[in-house]
């Protein structure tokens, strides 16, 4: 990870501003570490993201939530070991509507209230 640079003029800032900058730098470092861990994880896990253009999967840590907020559909996928090979999906707004599209395809949407 790269170290975030400081500016010598920061010494003249009020204490609250200097503390806010320090806090922001810490948060940026933590997020960069999370991103690095996500894209470099090589341990095979049951849940992963994979782009269409690449074969390198991004394995997701266990016990996470994957949230979707797209147009009028808001979904929460709980990434835990599913019982009996099933994935649990929650609608964050209204009822969950399942549209079967084939033997191996379904579309999901949240019912608008």
The description of the largest β-sheet is: 3 strands, antiparallel
Number of strands: 7
Structural classification: alpha+beta
Helix content: 10-25%
Number of helices: 1
Task: Report the mean per-residue pLDDT as an integer.
Answer: 79
Low-confidence stretches: none
End-to-end span in angstroms?
45 Å
Shape: elongated
Strand % is 25-35%
Kindly provide the radius of gyration, computed on alpha-carbon positions and rounded to a whole number of angstroms.
21 Å
N-to-C series of helices and strands: HEEEEEEE
Strand order of the largest sheet: 3-4-5
Quaternary organisation of the protein chains: single chain
Number of domains: 2
Account of the protein in words:
The chain has 113 residues and is an alpha+beta fold. The chain folds into 2 domains: 42 residues; 51 residues, no CATH class. It is built from 1 helix and 7 strands, in the order αβββββββ. The strands form 3 sheets. It has a 3-stranded antiparallel beta sheet, with no helix packed on it. A hairpin with a 2-residue loop joins β3 and β4. The chain is elongated and about 65 Å long.
Jot down its keywords.
113 residues, alpha+beta, three-stranded antiparallel beta sheet, two-stranded antiparallel sheet, 23% helix
Write the topology of this structure.
Layout: H1 15-40, E1 48-49, E2 58-59, E3 64-70, E4 73-79, E5 89-91, E6 96-102, E7 105-110
Antiparallel strand pairs: 1-2, 3-4, 4-5, 6-7
């Amino acid at each position: 990870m790269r170290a975030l640079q400081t500016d010598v003029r920061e010494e003249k800032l009020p204490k609250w501003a200097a503390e806010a900058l320090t806090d922001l730098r810490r948060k940026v470092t933590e997020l960069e570490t999370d991103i690095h861990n996500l894209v470099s994880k090589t341990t095979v896990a049951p849940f992963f993201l994979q782009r269409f253009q690449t074969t390198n999967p991004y394995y997701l840590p266990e016990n996470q939530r994957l949230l979707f907020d797209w147009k009028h559909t808001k979904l929460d996928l709980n990434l835990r070991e599913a019982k009996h090979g099933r994935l649990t999906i929650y609608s964050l707004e209204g009822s969950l509507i399942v549209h079967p599209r084939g033997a191996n395809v379904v579309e999901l949407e949240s019912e608008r209230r």
